[in-house]
Amino acid sequence: MHNKDQVKAKKHLGQHFLKDETIAKKIADTLSLKGYNHVLEIGPGMGVLTKYLLEKDTTTHVIEIDTESVAYLKANYLHLANRVHEQDFLKYDMSLIFKDDPFAVIGNFPYNISTQIIFKTLELRHQIPEFSGMFQKEVAQRICSKEGSKVYGILSVLTQAFYHTEYLFTVPPSVFNPPPKVDSGVLLLKRKESYSLPCDESLFFKVVKTAFQQRRKTLRNSLKSFNLSDNLKANVIFGKRPEQLSVDAFVELTLHIENDEH
Q: All domains of the chain, ordered by start, with CATH?
């Protein structure tokens, strides 16, 4: 498939093709390759990143929903052919590929589904010890931001509850075809040694999401739907706004709510 056709085919997917080989290699080199034998690339397109992953000492799989890209990869990367999965990462059961084995995730992610890819990774955290990829720069910064930052939010807290996050480098629009209107950013997630929380995890997710839905309000107001006791609402933590709370403070908050006695 010609590059022009490829771009046209991918336009509806929000994908921009990386054309800079140096950056492709640099992204492939961000993975430590420790603690797993499999790597999954999401949205490989024409394989500019794939070819550098195939040089590694791990087994590379790719997952791609565009039929023409799948045909291109199978025709041009013959030794990869049976590891090209024409599926949607967001909907596919990864155990059909990896069973219970750990695997790393990597990719130049389509902007329009990048946050959903993070949430799916969090669901699969027991199997994904490492994650590296390219996002819209502001999304990558948001994932890695700390409390007190204006961009600190749901994505920051939920990701950092289970992974160490690191913003690695910025990528300009000029290295893509077609060039996006914004800079991109590459980040690395390394799963924490202890990646289960000392509180009810589903409640933790709910508390974080509810708190940031009204981020300008104090927690006393934004968490009204939890029907908290007056005694609990008197706690100093409820006088704060969500962006003032660290991940640990959100865990503490969840424990308070969990143990609240009316």
A: 3-191 (3.40.50.150), 201-258 (1.10.8.100)
